[in-house]
From TrEMBL:
This is Spore germination protein. Keywords: Membrane, Transmembrane, Transmembrane helix. The keyword Transmembrane applies. It comes from Effusibacillus consociatus. InterPro entries: Spore_Ger, UPF0353/GerABKA_families. The chain crosses the membrane at residues 302-324, 398-417, 429-452.
């Protein structure tokens, strides 16, 4: 994977400095931030060279340091500046290298162009068919802070950033093992975005790793801007509403996934880490589950499962009971519901559809609004619209309560992608509940279970641990056993039929 670019036909660097300068100027036409500096050396300054870099990418401090370092190098290690020849320069750099500042020796013009775009200072000498490339990227990256999308209750308060090398360093600092393997490759002809995937040798399932490599085989031809672009390349079913990979910004979560035999994927320029394969039961667990006591973690997990069922079924249950099965509602509660629905011109399904639409609209608007006013507008908007809907007899108080509880329950799902799934599935379930009642809900769940049992993620069953059932692995699904009963070495974990989570 990492050697794909080596197979391309190279464009040699010319020994004629004017030809190299013309190629550079032609390639970077109308690039106003490109800096080309011509300079001379040798007896009577008869020999020429030029350096080229992007002023918007180079750090000025590094640039000045490299200039001084190169001047000192030429003067003291090669010879007096007035006596240096191209032969001296070639001999020194090809045989001795550079002492003060590491340089990369290039003999391919395409690679030199790519290094310039990557924030390097590239120097061409006359009568020499090679170039020197100094790394000098000077863009400031975001500092490591707390995760934005995954608030930390207890545990490390570190988040990944947009710098890929820094993210890899975070993982290396937490997983200090030579079996932690990292492979990188470059994608796209224009973006040239660096992509990295890592795994723990001995813990990862070899079949899943082989399937992952097969699916990203042609990814280097695509323009990848964010980690989520890769999701559709590796997922089993692009049209399934259920997510087949997980996302995180927490290094400890990524390392835990590596220990469990997962593959992590990162892309330069984005802080998101993709974890695959993603199994159904993993979307209800968080890193804090292993930082808290067993009893508390078990209660929280059961609460999440209840929130999942509530967010999916609560509006549909209300519609089915009030429309088709009122005999199942206690008499006192039924009279209270009928009293609140007095004067409502819509059936329960239309009423629920209107309120769900308003709630989803407020939720989306709260995300897009500026951060200081977004939450306030969402809360005030929900209160005002709910009160106005009841006063205008568009919705009953009971329906407002049902929709509000449904929205709150969806926020209890740890993974945002699974919460989106609930938002999608809620509406067809409401349609079936309004047309066939409880029988329609039963049909929906049968079809959903059939889809889940057939779905696979990188060759592994999506419902692994639940279907096919493996009782031993239930120690970390609905309840969490004490850590001493769960923790074990990840070495050769792929030999077990069903790894933990």
């Amino acid at each position: 994977m990492a050697n794909r670019q080596a197979d391309k036909e190279q464009t040699p660097i010319s020994t004629n400095l004017s030809d190299n300068l013309q190629k550079i100027e032609t390639i970077f036409t109308n690039c106003q931030d490109l800096q080309i500096l011509n300079w001379r050396y040798g007896p009577d300054l008869e020999h020429t060279a030029f350096s080229v870099y992007f002023g918007t990418l180079i750090q000025e401090k590094k640039l000045n340091y490299m200039k001084a370092s190169l001047q000192d190098l030429v003067t003291h290690e090669v010879g007096p500046a007035t006596m240096v020849t191209p032969e001296d320069v070639m001999f020194f750099f090809e045989r001795h290298g550079v002492s003060a500042q590491s340089a990369i020796l290039l003999n391919d013009m395409d690679q030199a162009v790519q290094d310039i775009l990557n924030g390097h200072l590239v120097i061409f000498f006359n009568q020499w068919n090679k170039a020197l490339s100094y790394p000098a990227m000077g863009l400031h990256s975001r500092q490591i802070t707390e995760p934005i999308t995954e608030p930390v209750v207890q545990g490390p308060h570190m988040s990944t950033v947009e710098n890929l090398q820094q993210n890899i360093g975070l993982l290396r600092s937490l997983l200090k093992s030579p079996r932690f393997k990292i492979e990188t490759f470059t994608t796209g002809q224009e973006t040239r975005r660096e992509v990295m995937f890592g795994y723990l040798e001995g813990a990862v399932n070899p079949e899943s790793l082989a399937e992952f490599r097969r699916r990203i085989r042609d990814l280097d031809k695509e323009e990848i801007l964010e980690t989520s672009y890769i999701e559709e390349w590796i997922e089993e079913s692009a049209y399934s509403p259920f997510p087949q990979v997980r996302y995180t910004e927490r290094p400890d979560t990524a390392v835990a996934a590596l220990l469990d035999g997962r593959i992590v994927v990162m892309v330069g320029g984005t802080p998101t880490i993709l974890i695959c394969p993603g199994l159904f039961v993993e979307f209800f667990a968080t890193s804090e589950d292993y930082y808290q006591r067993t009893v508390f973690t078990t209660l929280i997990r059961l609460l999440r499962i209840g929130a999942f069922l509530m967010a999916l079924t609560l509006p549909s249950i209300y519609i089915a009971l009030s429309t088709f099965h009122p005999e199942l509602i206690p008499t006192v509660l039924l009279l209270a519901i009928l009293d609140t629905r007095e004067g409502i011109p819509f059936p329960a399904f239309v009423e629920a559809l209107i309120m769900e639409f308003f709630f989803e609209l407020l939720r989306e608007a709260g995300i897009r609004l500026p951060r200081p006013i977004g939450p306030a507008v969402s809360i005030v908007g929900a209160l005002v619209i709910g009160e106005a809907a009841m006063q205008a007899k568009i919705a009953s108080p009971m329906m407002v309560i049902v929709v509000a509880l449904t929205g709150i329950a969806s926020f209890a799902i740890p993974q945002y992608s699974m919460a989106i799934t609930l938002r999608i599935l809620r509406f067809p379930l409401m349609v079936l509940a309004s047309t066939l009642g409880g029988f329609g809900m039963m049909i929906f769940f049968l079809l959903t279970f059939l889809h889940l049992t057939c779905l696979r993620s990188l060759g592994q069953p999506y419902m692994m641990t639940l279907a096919p059932m493996q009782g031993r692995q239930w120690r970390d699904v609905f309840i969490r056993f004490p850590l001493k009963a769960l923790m074990h070495s990840p070495r050769n974990r792929h030999l077990h039929k069903f790894p933990r989570n």
